[in-house]
């Protein structure tokens, strides 16, 4: 069923409204957040999953050399007598590349399971473009908070920040649709317990991604219909600005 201005319509009814076999612009089906309805609501999720798996295979093939080039850390030497590297040295791409980077098999399995479980429903509810923005900014938000708080030489990698962003967005979406929130809250609670009790977990990435994802999702699904795009653009732009400001502040501290 497709959301209409009043109630819901079946796809055939919407297509039949134009007489040409295509829905008129006014009746074109939209997602809850105002995005276009896609034939395959899992396409972006599949692409992101494939990128993570491909980079994981590349890491297994090339070893530490590729990890040193792509993982997130503030400022350190990757070799004993090598140059000082890191985000503070201008390598801001590490905030992005580390989101798709995994070293251990259990790490990528857990994250990709979360992506496959949470991704398709959100992609269908938000639309592809908004889902991509949510995923990337959640991951960048987690990376920026890690960069801001963690020790400069502490390495961080993985899609966990983005996955926690999907957790936050799912909770917001379920509340908006008035679904039973207990399953997602229990699952989120279990993951937060692991976050703060297991060693070698960058809790900053999890918390940063969770907050970013929840805030962006709230802006997308609660924006007034008449000003929806403006509110959504402002939310994404504001989140990106916060991420940049955190990175600028930390870079000034380290340099």
From TrEMBL:
Q: Which residues form the Peptidase S54 rhomboid domain?
A: 90-221
Keyword field: Hydrolase, Membrane, Protease, Transmembrane, Transmembrane helix
Q: Where is the signal peptide?
A: none
Q: Where in the cell is it found?
A: Membrane
- Tell me the Pfam families matching this sequence: Rhomboid
Q: What Gene3D superfamilies does the entry give?
A: Rhomboid-like
The record's GO CC annotations read: membrane
Q: Biological process GO annotation list?
A: proteolysis
Transmembrane regions: 100-119, 131-150, 156-174, 181-199, 205-221, 233-252
* Descriptive protein name: Rhomboid family intramembrane serine protease
